[in-house]
Amino acid sequence: MADSSEWEVGIAGNFPIHKAVKNVMPEGTKVVSAESCGISAWTKTAKVSVVLLDGESKRYFLKCATGQSARALAKGEFHSASAIDALLPGLVPKAAGWGEYHDGESRVYFFLGDFHDMDFSAPPEPVHFMSQVADLHRKGTSPNGMFGYPVPTVCGRMERTVTWEKSWAQSFTHQLKDVITFDNETNGLWPEYDAACKQLIAVVIPRLLGVLQSGGRAIMPTLIHGDLWERNIGIDMETGQTVLFDPGCTYAHNEMEFGTWRCSWAFYFNSPIWMRLYQRHFEPSEPAEEWDDRNRLYSIHPYLNDSAGHPGSSSRQIAYNEMLYLCEKYGPLDSLEKYNPERDICVTGAYVPFVMKQLE
């Protein structure tokens, strides 16, 4: 800590609190303690206990980030949580604020929201949970009828390109190019993979996603959580209600929400019951027979995001094989390698546990 006058003093715990954090709390709040809490690969997190001006005790969850995409992470989560809470109060922790401060030479960005004591060992009740997800998608209409988002958001630690677009194929192309670049920066160039990426962007996406908005067909941009998987869902220990966290929203094709449910680390969302329940509310977009291929395409985004964030994982090879499958079906090119069903987890049923290490 560079200047002690910028930090709260006389508080218990092991997590220092900058006055910028207190400034987004209600006026008259007294910080009592702050303890490191939770596991996060990209941020440092804490449970902050306070006493409000009226004497009521309250707990906040604090997330602090530095470096690449830190501002988008903090500001984007604040706007995302606020947007979801406005539609479905209680589904996400209520956002209190976001901001920045300096810690020595580091610029720190933070997000502050309500703290929930959560259980992560059991899945949510499927019928009610999928109706909540459907409600989010139904009520979360784009403010201008376009795909994108008003502020940058992140998935993991990768900042999304959220430029407003009328074309969903173009909007998704932006996001896929983001993760391809992110992955190449981390793992290096791979010529065969690069060739598959180019064919996917040039031919497969215009065909597979372009058809959603052609021939009289249309899709509506809907608000998606943006990083909805088992580790971002908990059950509130006091209320028993399902709570989603770590949103990185965008207005997208609703089916994009479920790309990560296909991935190798999915351990209950890979069951077909979840999508069957969701499709009671939202039928697959037309052409309905291409739903699974779109889901395969959408899974490439989280796979490459994981590959970039965790060098050496199997995610890049899996994503590459998914690209080959789609290229063979929608954009055949003799120079590409062949899809290998033995590397397709939907064929093999392989499960790869997701390993999360706390940021030091």
Major β-sheet strand ordering:
1-2-3-5-4
Average pLDDT confidence is 95
Cα radius of gyration in angstroms: 21 Å
Could you give the distance between the termini? 16 Å
Structural class: alpha+beta
Number of strands: 12
What's the helix count?
Answer: 9
The parts where pLDDT drops under 50 for at least 5 residues are none
Proportion of beta-strand residues: 15-25%
Largest sheet: 5 strands, antiparallel
Series of secondary-structure elements, N-terminal to C-terminal: HEEEHEEEHEEHHEEEEHHHH
> Which percent bin holds the helix content?
25-40%
Judging from the principal axes of the Cα atoms, what is the shape?
globular
Characterization of this structure:
There is one protein chain. The protein has 360 residues and is an alpha+beta fold. It is 33% helix and 17% strand. It has helices at residues 19-22, 70-87, 126-139, 168-187, 191-208, 272-278, 291-309, 315-330, 345-348, and strands at 30-36, 44-51, 57-65, 95-103, 106-114, 118-119, 154-155, 158-159, 222-224, 233-236, 242-244, 250-252. It has a five-stranded antiparallel β-sheet. A hairpin with a 2-residue loop joins strand 4 and strand 5. The radius of gyration is 21 Å and the shape is globular.
